[in-house]
Amino acid sequence: MAVVDPLIELRGVNKHFGTLHVLQSIDLTVGRGEVVVVIGPSGSGKSTLCRAINRLESVESGEILIDGQPLPEEGKALARLRAEVGMVFQSFNLFAHKTVLANVSLAQIKVRKRKKEDADRRSRELLARVGLAAQADKYPAQLSGGQQQRVAIARALAMDPKALLFDEPTSALDPEMINEVLEVMQQLARDGMTMVVVTHEMGFARSAANRVVFMADGRIVEDRAPEEFFTAPRSERAKDFLSKIL
Ligand code: ADP
Ligand code: MG
């Protein structure tokens, strides 16, 4: 699809794990302010795609550009990239021995070199934004899974990222906690955050996504507006997948 103002661009990206061709000639452009939902069967390469965008995985060929810049190989430039493209995982990965506030402030101090007072002030703003102002001084174990995931989102936002990647952010949550996380993500989308979201939450895809990317066997099989994709999938793989989850 034509994208007006590209923020994330992948061109001809390939990667193998041993003999498994996990990313096969991936072309994907995400425009500034766009929300792209990535769906597809387990093992199709969705997580690897996200990790490649953040360079948690290297790729063998092709180009990945963030805001027009190629992904740096290593060092400080890579740390900066990771700050610019935040990632939220299925497991929240909070530091258990640090308070919620300290979890959100930590990378601001270490990576963004903010003073602790400034970082804490920003953290409190962001915790309020995700509905957790009252939980700042608690420890992760005192929070529900949905609250912990919202802390992880606040922590990612604290880097002032240009884009956020979400890899199945609600898959580890009890059903009653899924909506509170999706609502925060919906609000981010409305606020214009550029987001790539791997999820099986089709309601979210329908209401928040500008595009749905369907992956199977390491390939992007469809890349279309959600209504088109859900009402008239073109490929047999997508039809089969949708018949199993809808
Ligand atoms: P998805 O997120 O769509 O379920 P993944 O990107 O996690 O798919 O994985 C795609 C394929 O690559 C799977 O077959 C998986 O087993 C394999 N894979 C993922 N990570 C590794 C790894 N570090 N080493 C070897 N194989 C891997
Ligand atoms: Mg995955």
From TrEMBL:
Domain named ABC transporter is located at: 8-242
User: What family is this protein classified in?
Assistant: Belongs to the ABC transporter superfamily.
Task: Write down the InterPro entries for this protein, in alphabetical order.
Answer: AAA+_ATPase (IPR003593), ABC_ATPase_HisP-typ (IPR030679), ABC_transporter-like_ATP-bd (IPR003439), ABC_transporter-like_CS (IPR017871), MetN_ABC_transporter-like (IPR050086), P-loop_NTPase (IPR027417)
The alphabetical list of record keywords is:
Amino-acid transport, ATP-binding, Cell membrane, Membrane, Nucleotide-binding, Transport
What is the top-level taxon of the source organism? Bacteria
Matching PANTHER family: AMINO ACID IMPORT ATP-BINDING PROTEIN, GLUTAMATE_ASPARTATE IMPORT ATP-BINDING PROTEIN GLTL
Its subcellular locations are: Cell membrane
Gene3D superfamilies linked to this entry: P-loop containing nucleotide triphosphate hydrolases (3.40.50.300)
What is the taxonomic lineage of the source species? Bacteria, Bacillati, Actinomycetota, Actinomycetes, Kitasatosporales
Chief localisation class = membrane
**Listed SUPFAM superfamilies:** P-loop containing nucleoside triphosphate hydrolases
Q: Could you state a single Gene Ontology molecular function term?
A: ATP binding
Mode of membrane association: Peripheral membrane protein
Protein name, entry field: Amino acid ABC transporter ATP-binding protein
> What is the scientific name of the source organism?
Streptomyces bikiniensis
